[in-house]
Amino acid sequence: MGRLDGKVALITGGAGGLGRQTAELFLNEGAKIALVDIDVLKLDKIRNELGSENIITIEADVTNESNVRYYVEQTVNEFDQIDIFFNNAGIIGEIGSIDEQSLGNFNKVLSINTTGAFLGLKHVLPVMKRQQQGTVINTSSVDGLRGSPNLSPYSASKHAVVGLTKTAALENAAYNVRVNSIHPAPVTGNMMETVEKGLSAVQENESSEVKEALTDSIPMGRYAESEDISKVVLFLASDDSDFVTGSQYRVDGGMGATS
Ligand SMILES: NC(=O)c1ccc[n+]([C@@H]2O[C@H](COP(=O)([O-])OP(=O)(O)OC[C@H]3O[C@@H](n4cnc5c(N)ncnc54)[C@H](O)[C@@H]3O)[C@@H](O)[C@H]2O)c1
């Protein structure tokens, strides 16, 4: 018996490190998966690697409302329902102090990380309300709960995800639809390599030194691995969390305990 037997999960950012890892875990737990991303080549590769009949992939840009409507419709057409929505697509954007940030970059990061999350909620929640059940996990970050020097667009976009999460939780509690956010520490993968490079340019030191300093800021002394995060996503996706809504789940190796 899997913890998600009979459930349908929709995952955005599905071609990325965390999306892929969560898709694999959910499949192993018995779910059917709709994997959404803008990167169709990576989506194809993952579908081949996972090699399951229980997965469909959908090319979509989370910032485009007709694309969002399309990924929701495709999922319902294929699997009839959406029980779990992992609202997870995101980018880090350019790195630099506020006075060095371009408006274009600020708008781009907000558009993917915040507007993309909003549009996903806007079109998935009516399906869950009709079903009178569902669970949403929005991906924020530790940077959605604290200031993060040189990452103002990212930090602002991820704070906004908390506001969306709490509001959606209140609006949908009466329908038995739960909405929570997760707040990962740095995770091993592409995104942190970009952060390390960007911060090393700003700080005029080596990427390896940036990585060492970031690692030192995590009490458990290491970056998260995607599995560390997806296990918490599974808890929020499963019935084990059936009285949890509107909450912010840190998965951060103790970082939150320092403030
Ligand atoms: N990696 C970390 O250290 C870390 C830490 C905290 C939070 N997060 C958050 O976790 C989430 C997943 O990140 P990840 O680590 O898997 O990064 P990743 O870069 O591997 O994956 C992100 C995915 O989002 C997709 N994407 C970007 N723009 C899109 C768009 N407009 N439409 C559709 N898809 C789009 C990308 O193609 C990519 O596949 C993000 O929201 C990120 O902000 C990551």
Would you give an account of this structure?
With 259 residues, the protein is an alpha/beta fold. The protein folds into two domains: 8-184 and 228-249, NAD(P)-binding Rossmann-like Domain (Rossmann fold, 3-Layer(aba) Sandwich), CATH 3.40.50.720; 189-223, no CATH class. Helices cover 48% and strands 15% of the residues. It has helices spanning 17-28, 40-50, 65-79, 103-131, 152-172, 190-203, 207-216, 226-237; strands at residues 8-12, 32-37, 55-59, 84-87, 134-139, 177-184, 248-251. It has a seven-stranded parallel β-sheet, sandwiched between helices. The protein is globular and about 55 Å long. The chain starts with 7 loop residues before the first strand and ends in an 8-residue tail after the last strand. The site of nicotinamide-adenine-dinucleotide has 27 residues, from helix 1, helix 4 and helix 6.
Summarize the model shown.
The protein has 259 residues and is an alpha/beta fold. It has helices at residues 17-28, 40-50, 65-79, 103-131, 152-172, 190-203, 207-216, 226-237; strands at 8-12, 32-37, 55-59, 84-87, 134-139, 177-184, 248-251.
What's the layout of helices and strands?
Blueprint lengths: L7 E5 L4 H12 L3 E6 L2 H11 L4 E5 L5 H15 L4 E4 L15 H29 L2 E6 L12 H21 L4 E8 L5 H14 L3 H10 L9 H12 L10 E4 L8
Parallel strand pairs: 1-2, 1-4, 2-3, 4-5, 5-6, 6-7
Helix pairs in contact: 1-8, 3-4, 4-5, 6-7
The structure holds nicotinamide-adenine-dinucleotide.
